[in-house]
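Why do we care about 3D structure at all? Because function follows from shape, and shape follows, mostly, from sequence. That is the central idea of this module. The next example makes it concrete: a single protein chain, its amino acid sequence, and then its structure expressed as tokens.
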Amino acid sequence: MSPTDSAPAGAPDFIKQRLKTSKITHAAIIDDVFDGVPNEALETGMDSFIMAISDDAELLGEVQKFCKDLKEAEDFDLECGRQLWSCRDQWNEALRPHAQLLFNVYQQRFDTLVRLADNLGQLGLEVHRLGTRETVPAGVPLVFLDYCLQPERDAQLLVLKQEELAESGTTQVKQEPGLLAVKIAGQLASLGAQRPFLVLISDRAELTEVRAEFRRRTDYLASTFACLSKAQASDHESLYIQLGCWGVGQPALLAIHEFFEAVMGSLKATSEDFRQALLELDAQDYSFIQRLSLSDDGEPLGDYMLDLIAAAISYRLRDQPAVRTARIALDGQRFSEHLPSSAQPSPQVRRLYQQVLTDPGIEDLAPHPLQHLQNPQVSPPMPRLALGDIFANSDHRVVFMVVNPACDLQFSPINPKRLADPTLPIYLIPGHLEAFNQSADSKAIARTELFELDGLAFRVLWDHKRVFTVLLGEFETWCRSGGYRRVTRLGLVHALAVQHTWTADLGRVGVPVTPPLTNPGDFRMFLRSADSTLEPFGERVRGQVILGRFRRKGELVDCFILTVDAVSYLRDALENAAKRFQAFAATVPAGPHQAAKSGVLQKLAQQALTARGATTYWYGLLEREQELKRVDGNKWSPEDHLKTPLAFWWQGYPQGKNIKQFGGGEIVLVIDILAPETPDSSLGPIQEEANVADSSAEATTEPTPGHSSAPGDNPPIEPGEQ
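And the structure:
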């Protein structure tokens, strides 16, 4: 199938688009099957074929048409077989069954690779079918390489290797360097960032066992290498799933490859450059560092030099131009989703993190390296501790970390002014160990997510509330009594992070609880009319709503409470609403729907009266804060059936609007809570003077609690009240 043929349903569009976007248009398959028929492919059928053509002169003559130098049937050899295979399209019906039997093994191998090529072609790729003596064209980004390219020779090597492994008792199969596939893969790997994605294919059972060793032997980058059986490669569904898992065409792969090549290429130059710098340091330099910088505080020279070297090597590597360029490119990559995979993430990630998390070469407690120079000697000598030292025992339940400031722990046996102080308190923060494969349910503020102890993986949940002290002079006794030993030391940054959790908690400030701060609020009432629109009832009621922010489930939320007068206004409004609906029901025009409409109005009247008499409900509005976020149009609707005739809104301005906009259904009264028109005068004399000026400019008539104006007497709503 050519690349231009339409792809069947089995070719996923997203993979085709990914390949197209990444400009991956070519692929190559390298297999000895494309070299022609090998000896081993004819071994099982050669004798039968020679016997058949020996007994049939016509059949022999048909074979001789394609094998010009063949005189006798017994002379049929590998070269004749290759000639016969190359003319397979011209076989007649008499020859075909005998030739198919002869080439059966080879035909199966050939067909498998043809299906692989067709599957790749369906993705829009031009496929190069290459034998072992052909070179991969420049720029081909995807290569399928047969693991066993010289079947006779490679099989013998592998048999010998299997026998060696059986004698040694090991199980992993390793390739010999003489395998042709290793040589070809090594040549491809030498292309650096331009190396193609390599898929090692084979029908041999040990393929999965050899993949890791094959990749290491050929210096192939893990993100550009995969293994696949030929059966899977020839099945289009399996192939497409694997291509998706490998991330072929993933935009970030190129940046990853370039970053790897830049780091690997710069490591050698960096290490050689630094080696030359170290060679230039003489004993005088070490002497100056120890005498003038370290002796007073007691920092050991070896520890200091290793820290200095590690920092300097990191600086020089980061400063390499190729590394800087590759780092910038990698910084710009984003993986928006997980790349599907048939394997677990590389364990190297955990190892790298573990190496960054802790310092290497940490031994159990020991005296200061210069302790033997102290004069006079002390007994017992004080142990040398450092920030981040972790102590554990065999229980694997809790560990303890030293969280003293690093400078407080330093002492110098040769500096009389900086000798070890046995009364120095050593601050220890406990950390509870939790199996790393368990869910992290704890709410611990500080945690170390990956901590390996005695070959087991844990996370440490640090308890900054339970820090305790042990005097330096008693520290070794404390360790022995609990079976504790120093197992590692957290890296400085990670240790400081845990220490900060503790010191920040110590330095927190306790402030008095803020009292409930409230503001007065206003409200207006709107009754439901016969046509379901909302009409104002009475005037704006000022200052009868208490607004504030109250704590609910640990958070401050906007709430309101009504005063007793406010409840009186609402109960009167419900009584008036009931009378209105009864009057509306009595005046429903005659007609087929008179009874139904009248019944609905009577029901609304009854609901209003029922709600008016619900004493418990009104006490709830008087005694409990009701949550209502102060954003225009927010609603609070009671859930109880007795409360449904009412709906509270924050500045919804419902006049003239349909009841459906405010809940509809059984609602007869909408209470629109409003921000006060004048500033809060409770904050001081300046506010009070402003309030006096505001109040003199307006004349208001407030309804008396327990009484209300008739609906027909309602004055028009003033500007600014909507």
